[in-house]
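Fold it.
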Amino acid sequence: MGLESYQLGKKGEEIAEEYLRNLGYEILEKNYHSSQGEVDLIAKDQDCLVFVEVKSYSYRSFGSPAGAVGITKKKSIIHAAEAYLYKNNIKDVYSRFDLITIYKKYNGQQIIEHFKDAFYVN
């Protein structure tokens, strides 16, 4: 990953964090790492624990940004979520996996899309 891509990703995570705070979410962790995965944001939405993947794009190209979260990435996020629950001895809590995509239209307007329950653990 190049520096420009890294900076775009970090800026996107900051935007997503602010967006979630404005919705009343409590941010618990940022960039949580386990041995086999990472979650960009872990938040609390009322009684729900939310594991959030953030995808940032300079401009939206053909197709949905949500398509960038493939099976390998999902497994990585799920592993990190399981590690977080285990490490913090969290049991019997409702949780979900959300996706936030951030991009700009060609006119410069910033778009934030929030996909609740973007994927599930099978």
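The chain has two helices and five strands.
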